[in-house]
Amino acid sequence: MTERLSRDDIAERLGRIAPWLAPGAYAIADLSRLTGGASMETWSFDAVTPDGRVPLILRRRAATPAPASADPSAAPLAREAEVIACAVAAGVPAPRIAHVCADCDDGHGGLGDAYVMHRVAGETLGKRIATDPAFAAVRPNLARQCGAALARIHAVTPPATLDHVDAAATLARYEATWRASGAVRPTIEAAFRWLERRLPRDAVAPRLIHGDFRNGNLMVDPANGLVAVLDWELAHVGDPAEDLGWLCTASWRFGQPHRRVGGFGDVDDLLAGYTEAGGEPIDPARVEFWSMLGSLKWGVMTTMMYATFAADPAAGPERGVIGRRLSEAEADIVAIIEAARQ
């Protein structure tokens, strides 16, 4: 388990490894914890060097894990850092890795499961990206930019350590997690059976999958649009339609249901950007399947998040708040089932 550390602890331990974070670094400054992330801690700080400051981000696994993981496919952060490095080398917009903390743990506690990356300027709050007038100029092209970024991600040769997970395995994994929770929700049961009957039958060439490509994990600049793809913890090898479908899942539209891609764009633009950047054409029906599976996954995740909060309120109120969103996922599931009947 990752050790629970105070802000002063984090500062002291980052200072200890400062020389590994940037050339000539001898201290750190302006450490501040950022909001967001129920399973991760994210800290902003600068590495101080003789030539100035280098803006960085510490990504660290939260100290209190869920008794039943909110997402059963989460990987160690060292592997996440490895995937990001591969993606950056292939031209994917993502932050450069500065340091993997396990590489120089001195045996005196360290920072646990963590890494440091370069800080990129931009906005990650999904609702602001979808609705704030400051992003009005870039929203019309954002879905196309996302398609292009996904095409580049799916062209990356994945590290050999990544799991291969197809649609059937994903559905089975989440059903096993759901059964273990003991929860009973008729809408969730209906979603499992609906998806089981519609599992893709055609063989698909497996690709590197980001695993959590959605509005909220995208860094967007009000002048340039998409500047970085964040949070690669769930990267694996699988069906490229998974990433597109997750981006289209209703939970990530932030009150803009008419914009199916992240609350800011249209599916046609997403698919066009994907093929224009070299991605193989993807059947929209496969995207629809993965979007429904996304709503089911989110329903299971919210239930697990609430279970964590109920078992240990000290884990933080965010898990409890996320747990309340189960009803939203259920409403999305019902809407998809009803639409398919027409």
Explained architecture:
This protein has 342 residues and is of the alpha+beta class. It has 2 domains: 7-118, 2-Layer Sandwich (Phosphorylase Kinase, domain 1), CATH 3.30.200.20; 126-341, Alpha-Beta Complex (Aminoglycoside 3'-phosphotransferase, Chain: A, domain 2), CATH 3.90.1200.10. The protein is 42% helix and 15% strand. It has helices at 7-16, 18-21, 77-89, 126-131, 139-154, 167-181, 186-197, 241-247, 267-276, 284-311, 317-323, 326-341, and strands spanning 27-33, 40-49, 52-61, 97-100, 114-118, 207-209, 218-221, 225-229, 236-238. A 5-stranded antiparallel beta sheet has the order 1-2-3-5-4, sandwiched between helices. It has a two-stranded antiparallel ribbon with strand order 6-9. The chain has a two-stranded antiparallel ribbon with strand order 7-8. A hairpin with a 3-residue loop joins strand 7 and strand 8. Mean pLDDT is 91; it is low at 65-70.
Provide a brief overview of the structure.
This protein is α+β, with helices and mostly antiparallel strands and 342 residues long. It contains 12 helices and 9 strands.
List keywords for this structure.
single chain; 9 strands; two-stranded antiparallel sheet; Aminoglycoside 3'-phosphotransferase, Chain: A, domain 2; about 350 residues; alpha+beta; 2 domains
What is CATH's topology name of the largest domain? Aminoglycoside 3'-phosphotransferase, Chain: A, domain 2
Q: What level of helicity do the residues show?
A: 40-55%
Shape call: globular
- Give the helix tally: 12
- What is the class of the largest domain in the CATH system? Alpha Beta
CATH architecture of the largest domain: Alpha-Beta Complex
